[in-house]
Structure formats: structure tokens, C-alpha cells
Amino acid sequence: MSRLFFCALLLGILSVHTLSAQLIASSNVMSAGRLKDYKGKTFTVKPAGKPVVYIFLSPECPLCKNYAPVLQAMQDKYKDVQFYGIISGRTFTQSEVAEYAKDYNITFPILMDTDKKVANYLNATVTPEALVIGNNGKEYYRGLIDDWVTGLGTKRARATRKYLELAINNVLTGNGLVSQTTPIGCLISNY
Predict the structure, then answer these.
(1) Which structural domain range is residue 95 located in?
(2) What values do phi and psi take at 90, rounded to 5?
(3) Model-level pTM?
(4) Quick one: pLDDT at residue 54?
């Protein structure tokens, strides 16, 4: 009896987490559906025919600095996936975000979510936090990029599990697996 209850509870939790992503793909996306990058170019942030990876970033977060080359390498490897970096809050100026992108040679769009509409809509809480959304609008993954970081201020010598890359591969190969890890990082600014 308790096993059945546990399975039902787990299914309910997974359903709630995928709901926000499914809403992004719907035709009635809230006003958070369009954001400008640090150059002023407007982007539609909902999936449009291909999987999307949302990475919540902060130019001053040490983990975001360390992971920038990893994320850029993934964008270069997975040409059929759209990566969006999202800077939420009013803490950083366009020039600070531009400097971050330049310093780490980031070529995927980094969007300014000044009112935190996308962060709130997707329930993002820390940087870096990754979400993988299939071209069907379903959330397939949420959480860590990999297992390199074990806690705030602690890390392994190297990552042994590449969660984000596994999720991308699952989406591209049609695997319906939905997974989640708990992201570790800097809290998204409230300013």
C-alpha cells in the first residue's frame, strides 16, 4: 500500500514540474514569452520547433564563470538545440552582461529578464540552473549541469555525471525520461 502511495506521489510531483514548461509551449504564453538580449535584440523564449535549454546565469557567480566554457561547448556540439542564457533581476547592466559574454566567448543569446518574469514562471531559484524543454513544450530536465559541484564551496576534481548533456541526448533520441536534480549555486537576485 505504501509503495502505491509513493508512486502516485512521485507521479504527481513530476506532473507539476512539467506543467510550467508545457505552458511555455502553449499559444497563450504570458508576457514573459519575449525578452531582449544585452544587445537589445528581442527573442521569443518559447520552443519553436526544436528543443531549448534555458540556463539561468549571473555574471558574478563563480559557478557561472566556471561553467560558461562548458555551456558554450555544449551549444557548439548540439546545433539542433537552442540555448538561452537568462540573467534575471535588475542587478546587472547590459554592459556587464556583454562583458561576461565576451570574457567567456559565449555565442548563444543571453537574455535580460529584468522583472524576473521568466525566472518566476519557470520557478528558477539559483544560478546556474538548467532546464531542458523538448520541441513539444515538455520539461525533460531541471537542475545541475553536472555533478562537479557537491555543495556551496565544495567540488569534485572532475564531473562524473553530466546531467544536462544526458537530458539533451534523451530529448534528441526520443527518450521520454523526465528527471530532476537540485541545483546548487548563487540565489537569483531579487533586485
Answers:
(1) 2-187
(2) -105, 10
(3) 0.82
(4) 96
